[in-house]
Write a structure and sequence with these properties.
2 domains; 108 residues; SH3 type barrels; 5-stranded antiparallel sheet; 44% helix
């Protein structure tokens, strides 16, 4: 019986070490999330802003809602897009999802 009490009476190992060692996995996880999620999204956003700033009248575009049309007028914060003969709509600049190049329409 005395043997069991001696086993339980042993001191627990000390907590020593630096606090940085405990935070290191969390820091690595945040760094990985930044490089896997945030950085590529920023790059994609910059490319989209560049595409929008370069749009001019006559460009064929697709909106985020799936509407195909041709830019007829560029305003400060929106585009006027012709979607059919005699039908024009105004959309915000961020609504443009992509620009259709002549190569894309030739293959259709």
């Amino acid at each position: 019986m005395e043997q069991f009490s001696l086993l339980f009476a042993q001191a627990a190992p000390g907590g020593g070490g630096s606090g940085l060692g405990g935070f290191l996995p969390i820091i690595i996880m945040f760094a990985a999330m930044y490089f896997l999620l945030i950085a590529p999204q920023r790059k994609k956003q910059k490319q989209h802003q560049k595409m929008i700033s370069e749009l001019a009248s006559g460009a064929d575009v697709v909106t985020s809602g799936g509407i195909y049309g041709t830019v007829t007028n560029v305003k400060d914060d929106r585009f006027v897009v012709r979607i059919a003969e005699g039908t024009k709509i105004e959309i915000t600049k961020n609504s443009v999802a992509s620009v259709i190049s002549n190569d894309d329409t030739a293959s259709s």
